[in-house]
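seq:
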Amino acid sequence: MIYSISLLSNFGIIVVHFPVSLNAVEDFATFVWRLSLVSAPLGGSRPLKCPHSQSGRTSTVTPSFHSAAYLKDPDRVMDGFGTELMYLPSVHSIAFYDHDVPWVAVQRCLALCPGVTNLTFRRSSTFHVPFSSSLPEVRPVLASSVLEECSYPTSLMTSFPSHSRPAWLIQNKIALERLCLSSLILGADRTARDLRLPIGSAPLKEMAEKDWPSMRSLVLEGEFPRGTDSQQLCTWLSKVLPRMPGLRRLVVRASVPQRTSGRISILGHPSPLPPSFSDLESLTITYPDPHDAIFSLKAPRLVKLSIRDWPRHYEVRAVQYYRERWRSPVLSASEMLSSLRRMSTPKLTSLELVYVADDADDDLLHHIVTTFPYLKHLELHRYRRPEGEHVDYEHIVGTLAEIRTLVTLRLNLDFEEDPGRCMNQVSIRRPWAHLLNERGWRAVDILDGVCPELEYVQLVFHAQPPSTWVEYRQDARSTRAIVYAPAAASHEDSMPYSTVPLF
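struct:
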């Protein structure tokens, strides 16, 4: 069991997580006593002692706290920030939960606690330096040589120009991020295992000059750059990925801005993935170029594949400021089929595809059914042809019923009767909800008996934002239940379940 403690420090609040043990109370008392010494002058290198609460004896026992999280307005960073880490030699994980994180605070933490292996920043965090200061030099900080994990997630909304965020300010933010991330990451090329970085500011050019033998997970997300920056990014990606031979998880989840053309290239056209890139288990890519060499990979261990959109295509269609900001170049069924046919993924168990139907629609479904013998989890976002069509959902589900190993099925079929977002129009929303329920249970009936491991079918309900997965499940006693689960938002892969009925 892990306990959390919130303590007042010279930065504000320090939240310390520590495992419960026989000495937990005593260690906690020791820690509090030592924190009280932070404001006092340190007496050289002499050992610090504190009284035990019960015996009255003195001891140099050091609390075995493992992680610290700082929460505070960063504008009030004091000269003594981070001093408490001198009394926490076991800390290996530090998290910053604020929108603006002073770069000097990060430097101090790593200097005072050189054993840190995990750095985490909250979503939409940005590095902060005083306005009058120059940007930090690009050099590895003290503790980077042992850094194993760094999570610096980004939000699409932070890239929106506005009156408070003009374009020049965003460009400065990206430049500062790239410098700070370079300083954190480039010295950890031998130890880094898990990196989550903004695609627009990750130091991929410099990373491509090093080998990353320990890298297991790389997540790049945000907004894909424009113009020559996008071409350079593709070049750097094609060079850095082959230098991560042990990579098991790759996520390139990026939106595509307006006033751009084409799709996202990962490895380019002429460069096949080297044979050493054979440990990949999970691959997520958005709006990929169907001719990209990523689809020529031989991935005998790949179990999860997602070829998707970001934000969701239905969000871009429904929300005006999304449409004004981003394109949504979803692959056609023909392009998706061509891409999948080039891949060798015999052990795939989870598949997500987002595509627009065309004449290859049935061929794509047949390929899914016949090519992945171990498939358990399938999620299809199938959009109607531009000229419109009747969605024969029974035919689609009937074809998928040939996947005898199916456990979960998620379908967004873009029904022609779907009214879209009509939250305040109950007279429209309620009839559509009932029709959607009929189709959900019909899908369960089609699969029941032929897919013995099936747990549920989910259909997307758009009429009330956020869009919601409506889950239809039937147990062995034929008892039926509906569960409502908010569909994945534009900034996350998944959201928690909700038990609030929507209609």
